[in-house]
Amino acid sequence: MNYVYGPVPSRRLGLSLGIDIIPYKICTLNCIYCQLGNTSQKSIDRKPYADKGEILKEVKDYLCNRPKIDFITFAGSGEPTLNSDIGSLIKGIKELTSIPIVILTNGTLLYREDVQEELLEADIVIPSLDAASQEIFERINRPHNSLKIETSISGLKRFRELYRGQIWLEVMLVKGVNDSKEELSRIKRAISEISPDKVHLNTVVRPPSETYAEPLNHDEMIDIKSFFGEGCEVIAEFSKHSAGTFRDVEESIIRMAKRRPVTIVDIADVVGISGTNAEKMIDGLKARGKLKEVFHKGKKYYHS
C-alpha cells in the first residue's frame, strides 16, 4: 500500500490506521522537534498531491481484511491540509465506514475558508499551537515566510466557531525555547480564546530533527499542566495492545518505521506479539538492512 499504513499505537487514539496524503516532508513548517527530520520543501500551495481514487481503494481494501481499529487518522509524512482533496477524501471514507476520522494538522492553514470547510466532517481535529508570539513561532516551528502566528490563532478561533466536532489542541514544549513564563502566558491566553475541547501537552520524546531540541522533565510538564488549568493533560504513554495479526508483519513494521522512529514496544503493540518476538523480528530486519538502530536520550529507536 502506498498511502495507508499501520495501524500504529497512539498515546491518545488507541490503534489508529494512518493515511499519508502528502509526499515526504512537504510542509508549511520545519519544526526543530520533528521526528521525520528537516522539511525538504516548505510550501503553502494546496494541490491534490496523491491519487484520490487509489487512496479510497486502499482504505476499502484494508477495512475488508484487517482487525478492528479505533480511528482513521490523516497524518504521516507532511502537512495533510496541503492536499486539496482532503475534504472529498473525508467524505469518501465516511461512505465506507463509521470509524471516526481524525485530522492531525499543524493548524497553519486553518485561516483559509476552504480548509475550514473541508475539515467540518471530520470527527476530531488535532491542531498544534507551540507558540503565541512570532519570535518563538519562528524559533520552534521555522514557518514558511508568509505565515504569521496571529493569523494561525485567528484561524483556529474561527474554525472553533464553525466546527461541531472535537478539537484537541496539542502544545509541544521544548526546553529553553517555548517554556518561559512569558510565552506560556501568551499560549494560555490563546488557548482561552480558541476554546478547544482538550489541551494536550507534549514534549520531545522521539529523536528530533535538531539535536538541541530538548524535552522537559515530568515535574516541569505537570507544573505547566497546572498553570494551563482545567481541560489540560500531559499525554500518557500508549498501553493498549492489538489483538490482531497482519498478513505481512515485516512490511507493516517497515512502513511504520519509515514514517517515524519506533521502539520495540511500539512494534510489539502494532503486531500484537511479545517484546522478545518483536526483538527477534527487528534483528532479522536489521541484518537485511531494512531497519537502522539509533539511540536518543538512552532509548533505542528503529527507522527505515
Total helical elements: 10
* Number of β-strand runs: 12
| Percent of sequence in beta strands | 15-25%
> From N to C, what is the helix and strand string?
EEEEHEHEHEHHEHEHEHHHEE
Q: What name is given to the CATH topology of the largest domain? A: TIM Barrel
Descriptive overview:
Helix 6 links the parallel strand 8 and strand 9. The protein is globular. The longest helix is centred in the N-terminal third of the chain and has 14 residues. It folds into two domains: 237 residues, Aldolase class I (TIM Barrel, Alpha-Beta Barrel); 48 residues, Winged helix-like DNA-binding domain superfamily/Winged helix DNA-binding domain (Arc Repressor Mutant, subunit A). Helix 1 runs parallel beside helix 2 and helix 9 packs across helix 10. It has ten helices and twelve strands. About 3% of the residues have low confidence. Strands 1-2-5-6-7-8-9-10 form an eight-stranded mixed beta sheet. It has a two-stranded parallel ribbon with strand order 3-4. With 304 residues, it is an alpha/beta fold. 35% of the residues lie in helices and 19% in strands.
